[in-house]
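anyone else get weird line breaks when pasting these?? whatever heres mine. first is seq + C-alpha cells for prot A
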Amino acid sequence: GPMHFYLDLTVEALMSREVISANGDQDIAELVGLLSDEGRHHLPVVDAQNQVIGMLTQSDVLGVLFKLQSQ
C-alpha cells in the first residue's frame, strides 16, 4: 500500500538541496528574514570552516524577542 512507499524513502530523497545557513557571529536581526522567507523553520549554524555547530529555530528567535519585549 501507500505506506510501503514512504518506508522506502531515504533522507536524501526528502531533504532540501539548497541549504541556507547562519554564522555563529551574525546578529539575530539579520536572521529573522531568513527564517521567515519561504517557510523556513530551522537554520543550520556553521563556523568559519563551514562545519555545522548548531541549529537555530524560529522558536529560539521568538523566545528571545518575547523576553526582550517583556523587559
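and prot B, same format (seq, then C-alpha cells)
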Amino acid sequence: PTQQALQKIISELQILLNDPNASFAQVADKLKAYRDLRDKAEKELDAAQKKLEEILTPRQEVILVTMGYLK
C-alpha cells in the first residue's frame, strides 16, 4: 500500500467522525480498513528491511539502525 492510500483512509475517517449521521458500523469498518492497510504496509517494510540487511556491511547496518531506518 502507498502512503497515499493510507492518507485517503485517514481523510475518510476524519470525514466520518465529523458527520453526525455516520453510524458506529461505518466508523468501525473504516478503522478496520485503515488498520489492515497499515499492518500490510508494516509487513512490506519489514520484508524490505530484511532484504536490505542482506546486502549491507556491518558498518552500514549499524549506521542505519542508529539512525532509526532499520530495527
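btw re prot B: The two ends are 20 Å apart (CA to CA). The helical segments are 3-18, 24-55, 58-66.
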